[in-house]
Design goal:
Bound molecules: copper (II) ion
Helix content of chain B: 25-40%
Number of domains of chain A: 2
Shape of chain A: elongated
Number of helices of chain A: 12
Order of helices and strands of chain B: HEEEEEEEEEHH
Number of domains of chain B: 2
Number of strands of chain A: 9
Radius of gyration of chain A: 26 Å
Order of helices and strands of chain A: HEEEEEEEEEHHHHHHHHHHH
CATH architecture of the largest domain in chain B: Sandwich
Structural class of chain A: alpha+beta
Strand content of chain B: 25-35%
Strand content of chain A: 5-15%
Structural class of chain B: alpha+beta
Oligomer: heterodimer
CATH superfamily of the largest domain in chain B: Cupredoxins -  blue copper proteins
Distance between the termini of chain A: 90 Å
Shape of chain B: elongated
Number of strands of chain B: 9
Largest interface: A-B, 23 and 15 residues
Distance between the termini of chain B: 11 Å
């Protein structure tokens, strides 16, 4: 009798072990599937994680090549390929809501392909400061053309030579730079008694001295990856999707309370528009997005520093920075 | 009369030589060439590329909708382009023949049919056509000598 009970207990234990081993060894990582945004994008779209605990993701695509990265996080983007599972492990130090996004252009609506990771644990971090354009009270949706444009491309190198003979201290702070459009600075420089072309050269020099060669290089890289498909590789507003965007704008503007929304990507080579925009205005538009114009919202993707690097790069479509190496 | 006959025979020989001997066409010196290939689902524009042996070629792959690739058979070269990020590749066309190129990025349902052709070699078609035409005239004259000499 005793032996029978022992045998039964042993058998039960064996069964339990057989059931529990695979459970314990089971892959606890989460599978994240990518599909084109027209077919619902990511699934799941919301992922739960805990601060300080690694989050393992298995990424795969059900249609075309996509990419995966988390906004405002130091990480190389991971390609998400059909028929292949790529693994990635993320570690979040701070609780909060993070945005993950597709990094390979998978179609006109590629930039809509985003999801969130809700990281719990501890105190939520302090709210970020209001964006600069709000503090400055700028209307970032108002047109900002300038009455006159330079007759030649303003050169930072020539401006640098003039900077040695005139005093520019009050124009050389980051605060002044961010809050003023190149045209406003051009006008403020009247006090220096320089002629028009010289003043534009000085503006070019001032703009260049607010960034670095590395900053511009990072801006260029982020621009190529995220903006060129709409705004064009050379900034002309003529990216490969420009026509499709305009077409989709026309069809939707008829239904949307009659108001035409500007769907053509901004032309950064257009001096009339660009020289009338302050860095704060452009950065505001970049981070907030166009709200229905087809200009995506990037605030959850870029860090503050990255955003200023991109803005500094955008002005290089207006200014000649050659000959300045710093 | 006799000299006319010889002339016609010579004409025939010349025409055939022009059509059939490759050496006449090989003269084209190697040049730098740039081809802009627009890739959209599911085709390349242009889908056919013709170049001469020895040319230094730059292929610019411009993607118009999703990520596409280009893999060139025979040369074992590949390119991948995101929309907005033109991909470039320079090589010397040192192997003659016809090579298929195809998309090596899964870009959608019709992806396996996204193909194009690169032909490396002297462009024969003009000399072939010209040579054959001359030969045909010569044969015509040989067959109807009377009518020609009237
Ligand atoms: Cu995607
Ligand atoms: Cu393709």
């Amino acid at each position: 009798m005793k032996r029978e009970i022992l045998a039964r207990i042993l058998l039960l234990a064996l069964c339990l072990v057989v059931v529990l081993i695979p459970l314990a060894l089971r892959d606890r990582s989460l599978t994240l599937r990518a599909r084109m945004p027209e077919d619902d994008g990511w699934s799941p779209q919301v992922i739960q994680a805990a601060a300080g605990q690694p989050l393992r993701l298995r990424l795969t695509s059900e249609d075309v090549t996509h990419g995966f990265a988390v906004g405002q996080m130091e990480m190389a983007s991971v390609d998400v390929l059909p028929g292949v599972v790529s693994e990635v492990t993320l570690l979040f130090d701070e609780p909060g809501i993070y945005t993950f996004f597709c990094t390979r252009w998978c179609g006109l609506n590629h930039w809509r392909m985003r999801g969130t990771i809700e990281v719990s644990g501890g105190d939520a971090p302090a709210l970020a400061d209001a964006p600069l354009y709000v503090a400055l009270g700028l209307d970032i949706d108002a047109p900002h053309p300038v009455p006159g444009v330079p007759s030649q491309i303003p050169s930072a190198a020539r401006g640098g030579q003039l900077a040695e003979i005139v005093s520019l201290a009050e124009f050389s702070t980051p605060e002044y730079y961010r809050a003023h459009s190149p045209y406003q600075v051009y006008q403020d420089l009247v006090s220096t008694n320089l002629n028009a072309a010289e003043r534009w050269d000085v503006v070019s020099y001032l703009w260049r001295s607010q960034t670095t060669a590395e900053g511009l290089a990072e801006g260029a890289r982020l621009y190529a990856q995220n903006c060129a498909a709409c705004h064009g590789e050379t900034g002309g507003g003529d990216g490969v999707f420009a026509d499709q965007l305009a077409a989709s704008g026309q069809s939707s503007s008829q239904t949307m309370h009659g108001s035409m929304s500007a769907r053509t990507p901004a032309d950064f080579t257009d001096a009339q528009n660009m020289l009338g925009a302050s860095p704060a205005l452009l950065q505001g538009k970049l981070m907030r997005g166009g709200m229905g114009t087809g200009m995506p919202m990037w605030g959850v993707i870029f860090t503050e520093e990255q955003s200023w690097n991109i803005i500094a790069f955008l002005y290089s479509f207006q200014f000649q920075y050659q000959g300045v190496t710093r | 009369m006799k000299s006319a006959m010889i002339f016609r025979l010579l004409m025939l020989a010349g025409g055939l030589a022009l059509a059939l001997l490759p050496s006449f066409a090989q003269a084209a010196p190697p040049v730098e060439r740039v081809f802009r290939i627009e890739a959209s689902s599911f085709a390349y524009k242009p889908g056919q590329i013709q170049l001469n042996l020895g040319d230094r070629v730059t292929l610019e792959l411009v993607s118009m909708d999703v990520v596409h690739g280009l893999y060139l058979d025979g040369y074992d070269l590949s390119l991948t382009a995101d929309p907005g990020q033109t991909a470039r590749l320079t090589f010397v066309a040192d192997r003659a023949g016809s090579f298929r190129f195809r998309c090596n990025v899964t870009c959608g349902a019709m992806h396996p049919f996204m193909i194009g052709k690169l032909t490396v070699g002297p462009n024969h078609s003009f000399t072939l056509a010209a040579g054959l035409t001359i030969s045909a005239i010569a044969i015509f004259l040989l067959i109807h000598p009377r009518r020609a000499s009237q």
